[in-house]
Design goal:
heterotrimer; A alpha+beta; B mainly alpha; C alpha+beta; A: alpha+beta; five-stranded mixed beta sheet; 8 helices; C: alpha+beta; 36% helix
Chain lengths: 249, 222, 649
């Protein structure tokens, strides 16, 4: 396959960026999208040009590092991560636009690499269960109903890639935040911190400069792990419950 | 608690949801009242007069009406201010756009924002037209039936009203469902039911309100 | 002239920290004998932890909970992305919830035997003991393990054992366990007990007066190379499987931290013990950048076969039953498709070498679910393996419900690593290595679902207990500053290396060298190794290294985000480590676990271990790039699990 790539190039966080056009040839449909970019980069290095910087690591769709907006879609046309997107999803002769996640809470570091540390700070605000090592009771002491365990798992699947923020017209981090709130709040182990968790995480999310939710559903459509939109509803419910309880205290 | 709610993006959405639902409830009542116009001037004017005497003798003349108006003004202001502040936050959160545009990406958001602005402007016009009569040539206080017929006898009156009601339909359609999510009552099992109710409400309100100008235009109401 | 292969044998090394006495009492004894640091004094101690995977994440969180000041590093943008996240299958624990005859002793026995009697008994027994606490800890953190309808934890049997002791969270157990550790870490970061440096890569170790006192690390965003100091350094930087270029490791997983520590005095043990995982998706072409593992759990229900005839190119469904060779079931009737990884991998290689492999290039065997679908129904297969089947289909564009999967072995895990004693301390005092970075518990072959167990055992329980002893016994270090001449020297060496990479301005990319090295290693130091092949590799590696320093091209500068520079610097270390791996493989003239020497086979082609000569861990001491290292042997004593020739027939 022969393709035309239009790639966002930006030297560093302070520089202005722009789209640059490259031609790549000899692309196999079995290649992953990132392998296609590897091919481009090998050529660029040999020409003495700066290769295109992009985040990637496991290339198995689980680490959440890869983060490209391809033809306007976070992670491209298939519902998966960029690293699991294969070139068979494209046609010979296609022009492909490749851009970084765009949100003021995710500043660009270089080219297609953005800073997603805001997500870490949201987790630090309360996305955990306080269980110091050694203090744990026997695992079977507290049974967890299977539906609750499955519900928790479904939300715990979030890989923190940030596609939800990239796809949201408001740059909101509601789906990310709600996934963790729902995961931990449904479990009996998470109950003691249930209220502070959601209040603190939502406050941190606002603090980081993410937008608000207008329930467009773009986040859930882009999510490679299929975290459902109703996850946000669940977090809203938890937040209201926590706010009411906090007021009573 | 008020501080927590107002300072949080989730809280402000709650304010929008609650104020929106208050307005929605009002609109349903308002729409049903409007339909009285099809039973003639007598019944319609009598209904309009009754609105001022509701609650008597416990309430003084127009007290109830003013109470409702105050609640509505608070709801409108809270709704609009929250919407404005949230929109500003949203726009700030996404300062640079994607080069590769996807039109569908912001359909619901745009409908809500522009729809909201249209509705806000409409409410002002609507009050000046049929409550105070400020922009209504030949407004007769105490003769609502005639005033309504007058308004809908002009082309612009019909256009403004019908466009606003279509915007209202779209606004309610996303807004009702959205409010349910914000208030945490949505769920996977309930989602279809909620969407159906939202669609039904939107359709009912739009159809109910538009029935009046259509009635005037077709001569059913004169 | 002496060559690299002319290694010398030095003093034996001994694990001086493991107490004597009955094996099940040793850990208690050690913990009791270890000195403690007064809680009030802990915050005065700084501990550097490199890596945030299962081992590093859990260690950082636990040390911070204990009150130490932790400075932690990861090259990823977030601690949550460490490659532990990709582990699919599960985590072993001797809970015996199934009442199927499991016990701490059985897990201990299985691990020593599975490791082909090349692991240390005291360590393995401790691992089995701690395994039960890990599950408790993770459940308390909210790890959503699979559960039964009664609300209790579900388990399954996994890779070569006959009890159901593997706890799992669908096919994403590593992810869930890692997020548990990451969340515990996050809590400590928020509390100010951990200073986290993401996107920062360790490039060297600082050893002052014989003790590990800090590291040199590069901020990958600004390019700034800086020094960080501590009272102890913990390496949790993972394995070195990426030496092979193609592996199931993450693209950026690398050996720099452990290799640089080795160069500064830490012995490197059993580098040739690499695990080739039998169930990976075969490569499709030269563009391949990495290999993807399909969980071993697939072998519970899938049947592995190849055509009986050589060069049979018919589609799988047109090959009749009697022309198929279910070779694992044929050769190993009692374990069948569930034989340990090393055996399954080698068997696949053998049938492919015979010309009976399937798929492009004949580098693949079938993993067939047709019988399972017939027996359990498609729905049940989907419920159990749905996400794996989807992943397979996404990568290969083939529907595994309709046509059998094609699989082929790939480098997956490295049992070798920095030599550590019972306290997980390396030969450099104050330098500890945990998780895959050390060599400890898996011997010559790791059992499925044991890596997660070991990483968390090291990080949550072992290191936090043993590091106390070191810190308590060495309470008053002179403080080291950036002005210290040793520090200046290490820093200058690092900067010079990076500058050199940038100034060669040759005509080959870092990846091209990495690929060349990887192909060489896969051919000569992969699934089957021979004297001649290893000698060839040992001859070739210095040549590649020489060419590297002549022809490498790294664009850009060092003072910016520069992924080519990162890569090139990692390749520098692979080019040295590969040599040691080949030497270790050459010197170990026996077959054991993942290490198969063609010269050492039983008459029927099985691996032949030679306990009289090789029942030791080989700890290598660095003497200089390309210079013959010194071998230190740690004799392995088996008091409880007596070495037998493994038999899975």
């Amino acid at each position: 396959m022969k393709l035309t790539l239009r790639v966002w190039r930006q030297k560093n966080a302070d520089a202005d960026g722009a789209m640059s056009t490259y031609e790549v040839d000899g692309i196999s449909s079995d290649m992953s999208f990132l392998e296609m970019l590897d091919t481009l980069n090998e050529e660029l290095i040999l020409c003495g040009e700066d290769p295109v910087a992009f985040d990637h690591d496991c290339r198995e769709g689980i680490c959440g590092a890869c983060s490209l907006v391809i033809n306007g879609d976070a992670h491209g046309p298939e519902r998966t991560t960029t690293c699991q997107l294969h070139m068979r999803s494209f046609q010979d002769g296609d022009t492909i636009d490749i851009e970084p996640w765009r949100a003021s809470a995710f500043p660009v570091i270089k080219d297609l690499v953005v800073d997603r540390s805001a997500f870490d700070r949201i987790i630090q605000a309360g996305g955990y269960i306080t269980a110091p090592t050694g203090a744990a009771p026997e695992a079977h002491a507290t049974p967890v109903p299977k539906p609750d365990a499955d519900f928790a798992f479904e939300h715990a699947e979030c890989i923190g890639c940030g596609a939800c923020v990239a796809a949201c017209p408001n740059g909101a981090a509601m789906l990310f935040t709600s996934a963790k709130v729902n995961h931990l709040n449904v479990l009996p182990q998470g109950a003691p911190e249930r209220e502070t968790r959601v209040l603190d995480m939502v406050a941190q999310m606002d603090e980081e400069g993410f937008g608000g939710c207008t329930l467009t559903g773009e986040c859930a459509t882009a999510c490679p792990k299929g975290i459902p939109l109703v996850s946000i509803t669940g977090m809203n419910k938890e937040w209201l419950r926590a706010t009411r309880k906090a007021a009573k205290r | 608690m008020a501080r927590t709610v107002w300072d949080s993006s989730v809280g402000k959405k709650t304010v929008m949801a609650v104020s929106g639902l208050i307005m929605l409830l009002y609109l349903v009542v308002h729409m049903i009242g409007n339909l009285k116009i099809f039973f003639g001037a007598g019944e319609f004017n009598h209904y309009a007069h009754w609105l001022r005497t509701v609650g008597e003798p416990f309430m003084h003349y127009e007290w109830t009406l003013w109470l409702v108006r105050i609640v509505l003004v608070v709801a409108v202001v809270a709704h609009a201010v929250s919407a404005y502040q949230l929109s500003r936050r949203d726009i700030r959160a996404r300062p640079s756009k994607y080069v590769h545009k996807k039109p569908r990406a912001s359909y619901a958001t745009r409908t809500m924002r522009w729809g909201g602005i249209i509705l806000g402007l409409f409410i002002v016009w609507h009050i000046l037209d049929l409550t105070t009569g400020t922009v209504h040539p030949g407004f007769q206080s105490g003769h609502p039936y005639q005033n309504v017929v007058d308004t809908f006898s002009t082309w612009y009156g019909n256009v403004i009203y019908i466009v606003a009601m279509l915007a209202l339909g779209l606004h309610v359609r996303h807004g009702f469902w959205s409010a349910a999510q914000t208030l945490g009552v949505g769920s996977r099992a309930r989602d279809r039911a909620l969407k159906a109710v939202a669609n039904a409400l939107a359709l009912l309100l739009t159809a109910g309100f538009i029935a009046v100008p259509v009635g005037v235009m077709t001569g059913l109401v004169s | 002239m002496s060559t690299y292969a002319d290694y010398t044998t030095g003093e034996p090394v001994a694990d001086t920290k493991a107490p004597a006495g009955p094996v099940h009492e040793r850990w208690d004894t050690r913990r009791f004998e270890a000195k403690l640091v007064n809680p009030a004094n802990r915050r005065k101690h700084t501990v550097i932890v490199v890596g945030t995977g299962l081992a590093g994440g859990s260690a950082g969180a636990t040390l911070a909970e204990q009150g130490y000041h932790v400075v932690q590093f990861c090259y990823q943008d977030s601690p949550r992305r460490a490659h532990s996240i990709a582990a699919q299958g599960g985590i072993n624990a001797a809970k015996n919830y199934r009442n199927d005859g499991d016990s701490v002793h059985r897990l201990f026995y299985d691990t020593v035997k599975g490791g082909d009697f090349r692991a240390r008994e005291s360590n393995v027994h401790r691992l089995a003991q701690i395994s039960v606490e890990i599950i408790d800890q993770c459940v308390a953190q909210g790890v959503p393990f699979a559960r039964e309808y009664g609300g209790l934890l579900d388990t399954r049997s996994f890779g070569g054992v006959q009890v159901s002791r593997t706890f799992y969270a669908r096919g994403q157990t590593g992810q869930q366990l890692l997020l548990g550790a990451y969340q515990a870490l996050s809590r400590q970061i928020a509390a100010g007990n951990i200073e986290l440096h993401p996107r920062t890569e360790m490039l060297d170790l600082i050893v002052v007066d014989g003790r590990a006192r800090g590291i040199v690390a590069r901020d990958l965003v600004t390019g700034r190379v800086d020094t960080y100091f501590a009272d102890a350094v913990v390496l949790a930087s993972g394995g070195y499987g990426n030496v092979f270029y193609l592996s199931t490791n993450a693209m950026n997983s690398n050996a720099t931290a452990i290799w640089r520590a080795h160069r500064r005095g830490a012995h490197f043990a059993n580098p040739c013990f690499t695990q080739i995982h039998p169930t990976c998706i075969p490569r499709t072409g030269d563009h391949q950048s990495k290999l993807t593992l399909m969980s071993e759990s697939l072998r519970n229900d899938g049947r592995i076969w190849v055509p009986k005839a050589k060069g049979d190119t018919r589609p799988a469904n047109q090959i009749p039953e009697d022309e198929r060779d279910y070779y694992l079931e044929r050769i190993y009737p009692s374990f069948g498709n569930l034989v340990p990884r090393d055996i399954a991998s080698r068997a696949a290689k053998n049938v492919c070498d015979e010309g009976r492999g399937v798929g492009p290039g004949g580098q693949g065997v079938y993993l067939d679910f047709a019988d399972a679908i017939k027996r359990m129904g498609r729905g049940a297969v989907e419920a159990k393996y749905g996400n794996l089947f989807d992943m397979y289909q996404r990568i290969t564009d083939e529907d595994p419900y309709e046509v059998p999967m094609r699989i082929y072995p790939a480098v997956h895990y490295t049992m070798g690593g920095l030599w550590v004693d019972y306290d997980l301390q390396t030969t450099v005092p104050g330098l500890f290595a945990i998780g895959e970075a050390n060599f400890s518990d898996h011997g010559a072959n790791r059992l499925g679902a044991s890596a997660l167990m070991q990483g968390l055992a090291d990080g949550y329980f072992v290191l936090p207990a043993t590091i106390n002893d070191y810190l308590a016994r060495n309470p008053h270090h002179e403080s080291v500053t950036a002005e210290h001449p040793v520090v200046q020297e290490v820093l200058a060496e690092t900067e010079d290396r990076l500058n050199l990479l940038l100034t060669v301005d040759g005509d080959r990319t870092p990846d091209s060298f990495h690929r060349e090295l990887g192909e060489l290693m896969w051919e000569f130091c992969g699934m089957a190794r021979s004297d001649a092949g290893l000698r060839k590799a040992l001859e070739r590696i210095p040549q590649i290294r020489e060419e590297f320093w002549r022809r490498i091209k790294v664009p850009g500068t060092g003072e910016e985000f520069n992924q080519s520079l990162e890569k090139a610097n990692r390749v520098v270390d692979y080019l040295e480590l590969a040599e040691l791996m080949c030497l270790d493989a050459l010197h170990r003239e026996e077959s054991c676990g993942g290490h198969f020497r063609e010269e050492s086979q039983t008459p029927d082609g099985e691996a032949a271990r030679r306990d009289e000569e090789f029942a030791y861990a080989a700890a290598w001491e660095f003497t200089g790039t390309g210079e013959a290292p010194v071998l230190h042997k740690e004799d392995l004593v088996f008091e409880y699990v007596h070495p037998t020739q493994r038999s899975y027939a």
